[in-house]
Amino acid sequence: EIDMITSVYAHILDEDRKINAQKFESAFYANPNLRAVRPPEEPKEPAPATLDLEALVEQLRQSPELANTLAALLSTAPGGR
User: Fold this and answer.
1) Who contacts 60 (Cβ-Cβ below 8 Å, separation ≥6)?
2) Gap between the Cα atoms of 30 and 24, Å rounded
3) 3-state class of 29 per DSSP?
4) 44 within a domain of the structure (yes/no)
5) Could you tell me if residue 70 is inside a domain?
6) Could you give the number of structural domains in the chain?
7) Mapping DSSP to helix (H, G, I), strand (E, B) and coil, where does residue 3 land?
8) How many CB atoms lie within 10 A of CB 79?
9) Taxonomically, which superkingdom (predicted)?
């Protein structure tokens, strides 16, 4: 009984291997000129955001509420005074 099960499953696995080999072969030989094939481009990292200190100071001058919020955040931050 075990031999029967083994032979049945071995036959199924052999068929799957044949199908996979055919798929691989057709995909591998689909483009015989590999000199024209280029690797995929890596995504470019975005440029780091620049901080415009003058604009930030101007916003803090125009909005005392924003300045107070920033001061409160800085005082509660680790290393804050």
Assistant:
1) 66, 67, 70
2) 10
3) coil
4) no
5) yes
6) 1
7) helix
8) 5
9) Bacteria
The angle, 0 to 180 degrees and rounded to 10, between the axes of the packed helices 64-76 and 53-62 is: 110
Q: Where are the beta strands (DSSP E) in the chain?
A: none
Look-up: residue for tokens 């995929």?
Answer: 40
Please indicate, yes or no, if residue 66 is contained in any of the structural domains.
yes
Ordered per-residue pLDDT tens for the chain, 81 residues: 677 777 777 766 677 888 888 988 888 887 667 677 788 888 888 777 788 888 888 999 999 999 999 899 989 888 755
Q: Pull the structure tokens for residue 26.
A: 């057709």
DSSP state for residue 34 in the 8-state scheme: G
Q: Domain span at residue 11?
A: 2-34+50-76
**pLDDT one-digit tens code per residue, 10-25:** 766 677 888 888 988 8
Both tokens of residue 50?
Answer: 């620049």
pLDDT value, residue 61 = 92
- Tokens, residue 63: 């909005």
